[in-house]
C-alpha cells in the first residue's frame, strides 16, 4: 500500500488552494469581513424561516480543518474498515474531491450574487460527500458516517452563538452513525439502507456546518439554512431507525440467524470488548474455554500464567468477552501491583456490587472477606469471577475468604505471572488448572508487527531487513512489539520515517534480545528504549501518570496533562482507557510492566507515600532545595506534615495530593500547581492565587465558601462530604470553563444558584446523596454540553425543571432513590442522546411521560422497586435501541404494553417480584434478541404468551416462586437455545410439565422450599425422565447434583 497520508495531504491541500482563491472574490465576501472574523446574522422572515447569515473568515483557519479531516480519515483507516484495495481507491476519490471543489470554486467566481454562490457551493459540497461515499464501494458506511460527524463534533468548543436544534442534530447524527456501525454485520444484503442513512448524515453535516464559526462550509460565505430545515432533518433521523431495524429483522428471519451482541454484555461498563486484530488469539481463547469445562457441575478455576507483557490480560479479556454466561452472574476486577488495604476493600466491594447489585462500603479487608463469604454461601446462582493481574499470592489471600464455598458450576479465571497460584486456590477448596501463555512465534510476531506498522501482513520489500531486526530484538513479546509498531506507524506520515527506523533499531539493539529470556531487566530494557523515543513533555506526562494518576478518571487526568499529550500516549500504547468501573467511568490504565519501568525511571522529582509511619526522608532532608520536587502525594502518613515543608516546595510543585492533616496555613502559594487533592484540611488561604490549577478536589473539608474564591481556569472541581456547604456562592458561576463538577455527599446542600445554567462548558454534574436538595434551578436547561447527570440519592428532590428535554447532549441520567419524585417533565422524550436511565427506588413515581418512547437512543433502563408504577406508556414499544430493561419490584405493574415484541434489540429483561403481573402479552415472542428473562417472584403470573417459544435467543429463564403458573405453552419446546431454567418454588404441575417440554441441553435448577418435601429423589417422574435419552443432563435438588447413576443405584 502506498503512503495514504501523503496522498490525502496533497489532495486536501488542493481543496485549501481552491478555497483560498475565493479570498479576493468580492462576490463571496461579507462587507464586514475586513473588520475581523465575527459571525453575524440577518433575519429573513419570522419563526422557523429565520435565515442565518455568516461572515467569511480568514482562510488560514482552513489549516485546522485540514488537520481535522485528515485525523478523521486516519481513524477510519486505523479501525480497518477499509480493505487495502479500497484504501487506494479512496485516495483517488479524495483527489477527485479536490478537483470537484476546484470546479465549484471557479463556478462561484461567475455567480451573480452572494446567495446564488452559497447555494451552489452548499449543494455541490453535499454532492461531493455523497459521490465520495458512493464511489468507495467497500468502505464501511459506519466508518464513513463516523468520520464525517467526527470533525464536526470536534468543533464543539468553538461554537459561536449556536442553537439547541443544531446541537440536537449533531448528537442525533453521531448516535445514528454508531447505530449503523452496530448493524453493519446484519445488513450486508441491505447495503442501500446503509447508504441512505449515511447520506442523511452527509446532508446533516452539510447543513450544520454553516452554524459553526469555524465550520468548513462557513468559509463559503452566506448560507440559506433555516430552523425548519434542521427540525425536518431531526425528524428524518428519528424515522430512519425503525426502517433500519426492520431490515435487520428481515435479514435475521431470512438467514435463520439470531441477533447477538458478539456473545458479550454490550452495556456492562465492566465487560471489556473482544480484542480486535490480535494474532493467534482466537485459538487460545478456545483452549482456555475448553479448560473451564463450563458444562461440568463442579467448581473450578483456570490460572493464565506467563511472562510479563506476554498477553495474559488480553487473553483473559477475550475469554471474558466471548462467554455469554448463561445462568451465571459475572464480574471482573484487576488487582495490580502492591494493592493497598483501601484498594483491596474497593475490589471486594466491586465483586459484591457486581454480583449482588447492592452498593457496599467496606472499612477493612477482613470485613470484606467476611461479607464475601456470607454472600457466596447464600448465593444460589452460578458465578463467573475474573481476577486479572495478580502479582503476589498474598494479594489473593487478602482479597478472598479462606474457604471459597461457591455455587455449583461456578468458575474463576485468574491471570498472573506467579505459577503457584493454583496451590493457593486449591487450599481454598477450588480445583484449579494452569494454562501457560506462550510468546508469539516468529510468524505470528511478524504478522502482528506488520499489521501495526503497514496495515498489511507482509512488509514492503525495502523494509524486510529492518523488520527482521526488530523481531529479533523484541522476540515474541506482544507489548514490546506493540510499542515499537505504534511508534513507527505514527512516524509514517513524517519526513523522518527512515531516520526513526534507524534510531529505533539502534536503541533496541543496545540491550539483549528477548527471545528465550525470562530476565525482567531485559524486558524493561526494551520498554525503556521506546520510552527514550518520546518527547520530553510526553516523558514527563508518562511519569506523572505512573506516580499519581493510575486508575483516576480519564477526564480528570486529561484536564491536568492536556488532551494532546494524553491522546499521544494512548496512541503510542503507553496508556490505555479502561471502563471497568461500575458506573462506566473511563479511567487511566497502564500495563504493570510499564508501571515498573516508570518507577525505575523516576528520578526523585516526585514523592508518593502511602500508609507509612514517617514522612519520606526527602521531605525532611536539609538539602531538599537542591532537587526541586514537582509532585507530592501523602496518604495516611502517621507523621504530620508541617506547613514549612510545604512552603519549601512551593516554587516547583505541580501536583499535590494530601489525604492527611496539615497543621496551620502556608505562607507561600505554589503558583504552578495543576492538581490539588486534599482531605480533612486546607493548607492554603488564597486558593484563587493558584492560577494554573486545573483540578481541585476537597473531601471532608469544612470551610466557609462565602469567604474563599476558586481560580477561574478550573476545569474539574470536586467537593465531597462537605457538611458546611449549604449553597454555592455567587462567584461560582464565573467558573466558565468548568467541565466537571462533583458535589456528592454534601448532605446539607439546599440549592444551586438561579443562574447555574451559565456554566455552559459543564459536561458532568454529580449531586449524589445531596439529601436536602429539593429542586434544581430553572436555567439548568441551558447546560447544553451536559452529558452526565447524577441525582441518585437526592431523597427530597420533588421535580425536574420544565423543558428538561432541552438537555440535548445528556447521555446518562441517574435518579435512583429520589423517593419524592412523582413524575417526569412532559418533554422528557426529547432527550435524544440519552442512553442510560436509572430511576430505581423512585417509590413515588406513578407514570412515565407519554412521549417516553421518543428516547430512540435509550439502551439501558432501570426502574427497580418503583412500587407505585402501574403501567408503561403505549409508545414504550418504540424504544428501538433498548437492550436492557429492569422492572424488578414494580409490584403494582399489572401488564406490559401490547406490541412489546417490537423491542427487537432487547436482550435482558428483569420482571422479578412484579407481584401484580398476571400474564405476558401476545407478541412477546417477537423479542428475538432476548437471552435473559427473569420472572422470579411473579406470584400472580398465570400464563406465558402462546408465542413464547419464538424467543430463539433465550439462554436463561427464571420462573422461581411463580406459584400461580401451572403450565407452559406448547411452543415452549421450541426454545432450542435455552441453557438454564430455574423453577425453584414453582407449582407441582409446572415442574411436571417442564420435563415434557425442555430441551436435553438445558440445565434445570429445582430448589424446593425446605418445608414442602417436594421433588425428592424418590419421585418417579424425574427418575424416569432422567434416564431417557432426551432427559436433562443434570438435576440439582437442595444443592446436590444427581445424575442417572445416582437414581439407578
Task: Write a compact overview of the structure shown.
It contains 28 helices and 29 strands. It is an alpha/beta fold and 1049 residues long. A hairpin with an 8-residue loop joins strand 6 and strand 7.
Description of the molecule:
This protein is an alpha/beta fold and 1049 residues long. It contains 28 helices and 29 strands. The longest helix is centred in the first third of the chain and has 29 residues, at 227-255.
The secondary-structure class comes to: alpha/beta
The end-to-end distance, rounded to whole angstroms, is 69 Å
Strand segment count: 29
Strand content: 5-15%
Helix content: 25-40%
Largest sheet: 20 strands, mixed
Give the overall form. Answer: globular
Can you lay out the helices and strands and say which pair or pack?
Layout (H helix, E strand, L loop, with lengths): L3 H17 L41 H17 L5 H26 L4 H22 L5 H13 L10 H20 L7 H19 L17 H29 L25 H12 L7 E6 L6 H11 L5 E9 L4 H16 L8 H14 L3 E9 L2 H7 L11 E6 L4 H7 L3 E6 L5 H13 L9 H11 L3 H13 L6 H12 L11 H12 L4 H14 L4 H8 L1 H9 L4 E3 L8 E3 L2 H10 L4 E5 L6 H4 L10 E5 L5 E2 H7 L5 E5 L2 E2 L11 E5 L15 E5 L16 E5 L19 E3 L21 E3 L21 E3 L21 E3 L21 E3 L21 E3 L21 E3 L21 E3 L21 E3 L21 E3 L21 E3 L5 H10 L5 E4 L13 H8 L7 E3 L2 E3 L1 H5 L1
Parallel strand pairs: 1-4, 1-5, 2-3, 3-4, 8-9, 9-11, 10-12, 11-13, 13-14, 14-15, 15-16, 16-17, 17-18, 18-19, 19-20, 20-21, 21-22, 22-23, 23-24, 24-25, 25-26, 26-27, 27-28
Antiparallel strand pairs: 6-7, 28-29
Helix pairs in contact: 1-2, 1-3, 2-5, 3-4, 4-7, 5-6, 5-7, 6-7, 6-8, 7-8, 9-10, 11-12, 15-17, 17-19, 19-23, 20-22, 20-23, 21-22
Keywords: Leucine-rich repeat, Repeat
Organism: Ceratodon purpureus (Fire moss)
GO molecular function: ADP binding
Amino acid at each position: 500500500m502506498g503512503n495514504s497520508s501523503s496522498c490525502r495531504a496533497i489532495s486536501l491541500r488542493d481543496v485549501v488552494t481552491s478555497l483560498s482563491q475565493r479570498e479576493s472574490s468580492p462576490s463571496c465576501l461579507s462587507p464586514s469581513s475586513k473588520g475581523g472574523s465575527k459571525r453575524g446574522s440577518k433575519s429573513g422572515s419570522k419563526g422557523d424561516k429565520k435565515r442565518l447569515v455568516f461572515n467569511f473568515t480568514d482562510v488560514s483557519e482552513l489549516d485546522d480543518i485540514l488537520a481535522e479531516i485528515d485525523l478523521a480519515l486516519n481513524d477510519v483507516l486505523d479501525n480497518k474498515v477499509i480493505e487495502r484495495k479500497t484504501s487506494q481507491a479512496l485516495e483517488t476519490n479524495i483527489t477527485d474531491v479536490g478537483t470537484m471543489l476546484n470546479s465549484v470554486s471557479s463556478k462561484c467566481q461567475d455567480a451573480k450574487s452572494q446567495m446564488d454562490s452559497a447555494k451552489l457551493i452548499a449543494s455541490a459540497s453535499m454532492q461531493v460527500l455523497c459521490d465520495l461515499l458512493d464511489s468507495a464501494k467497500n468502505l464501511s458506511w459506519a466508518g464513513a458516517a463516523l468520520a464525517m460527524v467526527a470533525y464536526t463534533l470536534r468543533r464543539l468548543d468553538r461554537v459561536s452563538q449556536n442553537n439547541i436544534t443544531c446541537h440536537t442534530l449533531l448528537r442525533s447524527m453521531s448516535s445514528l452513525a454508531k447505530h449503523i456501525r452496530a448493524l453493519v454485520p446484519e445488513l450486508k444484503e441491505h447495503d442501500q439502507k446503509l447508504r441512505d442513512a449515511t447520506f442523511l448524515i452527509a446532508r446533516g453535516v452539510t447543513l450544520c456546518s454553516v452554524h459553526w464559526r469555524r465550520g468548513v462550509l462557513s468559509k463559503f460565505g452566506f448560507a440559506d439554512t433555516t430552523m425548519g430545515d434542521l427540525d425536518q432533518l431531526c425528524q428524518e433521523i428519528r424515522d430512519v431507525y425503525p426502517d433500519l431495524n426492520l431490515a435487520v429483522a428481515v435479514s435475521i428471519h431470512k438467514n435463520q440467524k439470531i441477533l447477538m451482541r458478539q456473545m458479550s454484555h454490550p452495556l456492562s461498563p465492566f465487560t471489556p470488548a473482544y480484542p480486535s486484530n490480535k494474532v493467534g488469539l482466537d485459538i487460545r481463547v478456545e483452549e482456555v474455554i475448553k479448560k473451564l469445562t463450563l458444562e461440568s457441575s463442579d467448581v473450578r478455576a483456570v490460572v493464565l500464567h506467563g511472562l510479563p507483557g506476554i498477553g495474559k490480560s488480553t487473553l483473559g479479556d477475550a475469554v471474558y468477552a466471548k462467554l455469554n454466561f448463561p445462568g451465571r452472574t459475572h464480574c471482573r476486577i484487576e488487582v495490580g501491583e502492591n494493592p493497598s488495604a483501601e484498594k483491596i476493600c474497593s475490589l471486594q466491594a466491586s465483586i459484591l456490587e457486581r454480583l449482588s447489585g447492592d452498593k457496599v462500603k467496606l472499612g477493612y479487608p477482613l470485613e470484606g472477606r467476611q461479607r464475601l463469604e456470607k454472600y457466596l454461601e447464600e448465593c444460589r446462582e452460578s458465578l463467573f469471577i475474573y481476577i486479572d493481574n495478580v502479582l503476589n499470592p498474598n494479594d489473593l489471600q487478602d482479597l478472598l475468604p479462606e474457604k471459597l464455598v461457591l455455587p455449583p458450576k461456578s468458575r474463576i479465571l485468574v491471570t498472573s505471572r506467579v505459577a503457584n497460584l493454583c496451590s493457593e486456590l486449591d487450599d481454598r477448596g477450588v480445583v484449579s488448572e494452569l494454562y501457560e501463555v506462550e510468546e508469539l512465534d516468529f510468524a505470528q510476531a511478524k504478522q502482528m508487527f506488520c499489521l501495526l506498522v503497514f496495515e498489511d501482513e507482509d512488509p514492503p520489500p525495502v523494509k524486510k531487513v529492518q523488520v527482521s531486526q526488530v523481531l529479533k530484538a523484541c522476540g515474541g513479546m506482544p507489548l514490546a512489539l506493540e510499542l515499537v509498531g505504534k511508534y513507527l506507524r505514527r512516524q509514517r506520515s513524517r519526513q523522518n520515517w527512515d531516520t526513526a527506523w534507524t534510531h529505533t533499531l539502534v536503541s533496541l539493539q543496545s540491550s539483549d534480545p528477548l527471545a528465550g529470556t525470562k530476565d525482567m531487566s531485559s524486558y524493561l530494557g526494551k520498554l525503556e528504549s521506546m520510552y527514550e523515543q518520546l518527547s520530553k513533555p510526553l516523558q514527563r506526562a508518562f511519569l506523572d501518570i505512573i506516580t499519581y494518576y493510575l486508575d483516576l478518571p480519564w477526564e480528570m487526568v486529561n484536564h491536568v496533562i492536556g488532551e494532546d499529550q494524553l491522546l499521544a500516549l494512548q496512541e503510542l500504547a503507553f496508556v490505555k482507557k479502561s471502563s471497568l468501573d461500575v458506573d462506566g467511568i473511563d479511567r487511566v490504565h497502564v500495563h504493570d510492566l510499564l508501571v515498573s519501568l516508570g518507577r525505575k525511571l523516576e528520578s526523585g522529582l516526585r514523592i508518593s507515600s502511602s500508609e507509612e509511619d514517617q514522612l519520606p526522608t526527602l521531605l525532611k532532608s536539609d538539602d531538599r532545595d537542591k532537587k526541586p520536587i514537582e509532585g507530592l502525594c501523602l496518604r495516611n502518613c502517621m507523621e504530620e506534615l508541617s506547613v514549612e515543608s510545604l512552603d519549601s516546595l512551593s516554587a516547583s510543585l505541580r501536583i499535590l495530593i494530601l489525604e492527611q492533616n496539615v497543621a496551620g496555613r502556608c505562607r507561600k502559594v505554589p503558583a504552578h500547581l495543576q492538581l490539588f487533592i486534599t482531605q480533612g484540611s486546607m493548607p492554603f488561604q488564597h486558593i484563587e492565587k493558584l492560577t494554573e490549577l486545573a483540578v481541585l478536589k476537597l473531601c471532608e473539608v469544612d470551610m466557609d465558601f462565602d469567604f474563599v474564591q476558586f481560580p477561574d481556569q478550573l476545569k474539574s472541581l470536586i467537593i465531597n462530604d462537605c457538611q458546611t456547604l449549604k449553597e454555592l456562592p455567587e462567584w461560582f458561576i464565573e467558573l466558565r470553563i468548568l467541565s466537571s463538577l462533583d458535589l456528592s455527599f454534601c448532605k446539607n446542600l439546599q440549592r444551586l444558584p438561579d443562574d447555574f445554567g451559565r456554566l455552559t462548558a459543564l459536561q458532568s454534574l454529580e449531586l449524589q446523596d445531596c439529601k436536602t436538595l429539593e429542586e434544581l434551578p430553572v436555567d439548568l436547561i441551558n447546560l447544553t454540553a451536559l452529558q452526565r447527570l447524577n441525582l441518585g440519592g437526592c431523597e427530597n428532590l420533588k421535580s425536574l425543571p420544565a423543558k428538561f428535554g432541552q438537555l440535548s447532549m445528556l447521555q446518562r441520567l441517574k435518579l435512583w432513590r429520589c423517593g419524592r419524585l412523582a413524575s417526569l417533565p412532559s418533554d422528557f422524550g426529547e432527550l435524544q442522546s440519552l442512553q442510560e436511565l436509572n430511576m430505581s427506588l423512585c417509590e413515588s413515581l406513578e407514570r412515565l411521560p407519554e412521549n417516553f418512547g421518543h428516547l430512540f437512543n435509550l439502551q439501558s433502563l432501570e426502574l427497580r422497586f418503583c412500587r407505585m408504577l402501574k403501567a408503561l406508556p403505549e409508545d414504550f414499544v418504540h424504544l428501538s435501541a433498548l437492550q436492557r430493561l429492569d422492572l424488578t419490584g414494580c409490584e403494582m405493574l399489572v401488564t406490559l404494553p401490547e406490541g412489546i415484541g417490537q423491542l427487537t434489540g432487547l436482550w435482558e429483561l428483569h420482571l422479578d417480584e412484579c407481584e401484580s403481573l398476571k400474564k405476558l402479552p401476545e407478541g412477546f415472542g417477537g423479542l428475538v434478541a432476548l437471552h435473559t428473562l427473569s420472572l422470579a417472584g411473579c406470584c400472580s403470573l398465570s400464563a406465558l404468551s402462546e408465542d413464547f417459544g419464538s424467543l430463539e435467543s433465550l439462554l436463561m429463564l427464571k420462573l422461581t416462586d411463580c406459584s400461580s403458573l401451572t403450565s407452559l405453552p406448547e411452543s415452549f419446546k421450541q426454545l432450542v437455545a435455552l441453557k438454564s431454567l430455574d423453577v425453584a418454588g414453582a407449582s407441582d404441575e409446572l415442574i411436571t410439565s417442564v420435563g415434557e417440554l425442555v430441551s436435553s441441553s438445558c440445565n434445570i435448577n429445582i430448589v424446593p422450599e425446605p418445608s414442602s418435601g417436594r421433588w425428592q429423589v424418590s419421585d418417579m417422574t424425574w427418575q424416569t425422565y432422567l434416564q431417557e435419552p432426551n432427559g436433562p443432563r443434570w438435576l440439582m435438588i437442595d444443592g446436590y447434583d444427581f445424575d442417572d447413576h445416582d437414581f439407578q443405584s
